[in-house]
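User: tokens in, sequence out, please.
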């Protein structure tokens, strides 16, 4: 039997690999129209496809893990990542690359499954710290992966990014197969195929409307049909799930106050994280002549953003120990407060590069505490047989937050521009509005966190996690 430390390490590496996929193409995003001979609207699907796949697959993979074994589903998702990476590495056109990126997006389900595995196999005294570490990889992988992607892009053909991803996925697959034990806890029943299809259709409709609203127009027929149609499908899906004998997601458990409020806070925390990922790199990279930027190279800007990921990594074991002392609710309060400080600091001070560095460190602290607290709160409120699906739903809520941030902040930056050398660029006012929005959502996260019940739900039967 591998040591518990080895299991945690392997699952952390798997989480880093999964979150890395979301910043993998950031260095080449602006160049994709030229590289693939496609329009900018078409190349936006390289990002959108990954987002949609991750949102749809994550909650479904959680239920499959509960039913058929969490390690087994982790291995399947890693195999899909490798396949998608190879497809992308061999791509010469936009359609092939979009297919590859959608397959890569499926690996997002590895993180909530890894968190659920920890609850099954670790000693109770190690669970909180381990959960904090795995949960932090959602932010760490992206922050640390950005400079790696930038260096590869500047020194090699862009296809090497995907060969690197394929190699990383293969290594993680072997490590999981070797180190992580087979899941023995299974949920009985039949898989809810109708529920899975309904959730997928509804989510795709809503996320398409949110993610493409800026390009298609928020009142365009396509956005209205996708958005309203997706909401209608999700409403029918919820009605069906409440009546199904073996639902994909037990909505009665999801409606428990601690679970519901934690998931709402997750949307807000996801918004706060991604808003910073959109705004701070643009400020750092915009030409200084625009009056709103610092003119740094992509690699230099990545190095300024990277400390947020390092802070998350350093804080993760401390977060677990702190949660045992003060409880995960207070940890989430700390996280939301740090985001408020970050955006408030940037509103007051953003004239020097080191100001942005300080703000990113505060963002790292906020996400490190917040992302560590949320799965702890979830698992204190659900039965052990529901951990995979419940963590998958929580990860989906974070994804909804990031998607909303991408759309809202993107719209703000696109609507407040000035011409620089004939190219529309965001103004200082656009960044100020973005900081205000990020801070306002962080305040909302704090308010929701304060309303979360402090004690474990009485329905929760698993004894390993202390209050």
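Assistant: Sequence out:
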């Amino acid at each position: 039997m591998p040591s518990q430390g080895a299991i945690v390490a392997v699952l952390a590496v798997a989480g880093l690999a999964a979150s890395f996929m979301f910043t993998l193409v950031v260095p080449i995003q602006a160049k994709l129209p030229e590289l693939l001979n496609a329009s900018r609207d078409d190349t936006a699907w390289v990002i959108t496809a990954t987002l949609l796949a991750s949102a749809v697959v994550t909650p479904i993979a959680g239920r499959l893990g509960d039913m058929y074994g969490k390690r087994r589903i982790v291995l399947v998702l890693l195999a899909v990542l490798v396949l998608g990476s190879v497809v992308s590495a061999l791509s010469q056109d936009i359609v092939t690359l979009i297919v590859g990126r959608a397959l890569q997006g499926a690996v997002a389900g590895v993180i909530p499954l890894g968190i659920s595995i920890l609850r099954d196999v670790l000693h109770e005294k190690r669970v909180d710290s381990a959960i904090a570490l795995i949960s932090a990889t959602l932010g760490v992988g992206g922050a640390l992966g950005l400079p790696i992607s930038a260096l590869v892009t500047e020194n090699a053909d862009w296809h090497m990014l995907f060969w690197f991803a394929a190699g990383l996925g293969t290594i993680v697959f072997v490590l999981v197969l070797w180190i992580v034990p087979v899941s023995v806890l299974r949920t009985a029943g039949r898989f809810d195929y109708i529920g899975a299809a309904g959730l997928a259709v509804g989510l795709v409709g809503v996320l398409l409307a949110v993610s493409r609203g800026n390009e298609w127009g928020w009142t365009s027929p396509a956005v209205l049909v996708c958005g309203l149609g997706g909401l209608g499908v999700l409403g029918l899906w919820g009605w069906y799930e409440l009546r199904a004998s073996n639902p994909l997601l037990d909505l009665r458990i999801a409606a428990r106050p601690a679970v519901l409020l934690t998931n709402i806070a997750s949307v807000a925390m996801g918004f706060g994280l991604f808003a910073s990922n959109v705004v701070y790199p643009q400020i750092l990279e915009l030409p200084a002549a625009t009056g709103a930027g610092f003119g740094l190279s992509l690699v230099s800007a990545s190095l300024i953003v990277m400390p947020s990921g390092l802070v998350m990594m350093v804080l993760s074991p401390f977060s677990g120990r702190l949660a045992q002392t003060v409880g995960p609710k207070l940890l989430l309060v700390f996280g939301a407060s740090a985001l408020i400080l970050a955006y408030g600091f940037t509103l007051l001070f953003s004239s020097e590069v080191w100001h942005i560095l300080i703000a990113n460190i505060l963002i790292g602290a906020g996400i490190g505490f917040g992302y560590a607290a949320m799965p702890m709160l979830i698992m204190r409120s659900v039965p052990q047989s529901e951990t995979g699906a419940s963590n998958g739903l929580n990860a989906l809520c974070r994804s909804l937050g990031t998607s909303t941030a991408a759309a809202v902040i993107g719209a703000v930056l696109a609507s407040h521009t000035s011409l620089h050398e004939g190219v529309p660029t965001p103004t200082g006012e656009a960044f100020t509005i973005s900081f205000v929005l990020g801070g306002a959502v962080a305040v909302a996260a704090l308010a929701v966190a304060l309303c979360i019940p402090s004690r474990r739900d009485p329905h929760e039967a698993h004894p390993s996690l202390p209050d």
